[in-house]
Amino acid sequence: MKKHPLLWFYLLAFLISWVGWAPSVAASRGVTAFAHPAFQALLLFPALGPAIAAVVVTWAAEGRGSVLTLMTRLVRWRVGGLWYVVALLIPPLLHLGARGVDRMLGINPPSASDVALTGPALVGFVIVSLLSNPWEEVGWRGFALPRLQSRSNALVATLIVGFLWGMWHLPLFWWAGGPMAAHPFVPWLVGVIGESFVYTWLYNGTGGSLLVVSLYHVVGNVSGALLADKAGSAVGMAVAAALLAIVLVLVFGPARLSRRWEESG
User: pTM of the full predicted structure?
Assistant: First the structure.
């Protein structure tokens, strides 16, 4: 693990998470042996997989002290207040922008009844997002991003993190009847890669605050559910996110995607 920490991280993150998703995906495809409700407990694995992988590899490669440094980024709250405003506002604006792209391209977005969450389902979704999204970010942005940026510029590192982050979600597209099964994967993946530039900008601009990055992640998921009747299609989001990524690269530069830089990896 000391020689190839990134490889080990991604292998473990995918293995742990996909093992957790596999029974539910199999059950949705008619494999009745995995239909027992007890298998749903394994869905904790995807929620924690990236963080577990990051902690295991960090401990093995760098020791206990580096694990503490990694986890303290989750509570790094002393950043400019504007970063919190940005983390709260960009996600809903992206969803609305995606709908605008759909209108320009003549695309009919998914019916709100297909994606909307209300009442207890919405509350449950918010709770799940709050409990799971920060642990994802411990892996993607806390562990992988700074290590990739130490080898290449922010643009290349972001493309790699975004692509692998999107591929990590692949079992959800095989989950028949699941919330993501109806989305076309390739446009969705392009949107994820585009949005990854926002995550890198937030992470680098705040000196490595996973708190701000996690807030953006949670708000992105929740605003998508709240704005179901106004959000756009996967194609619309892909275009909107790609345009935002281009703006960030042009304004802040491909080397760091930030005018402030603190080596946090």
Answer: 0.93
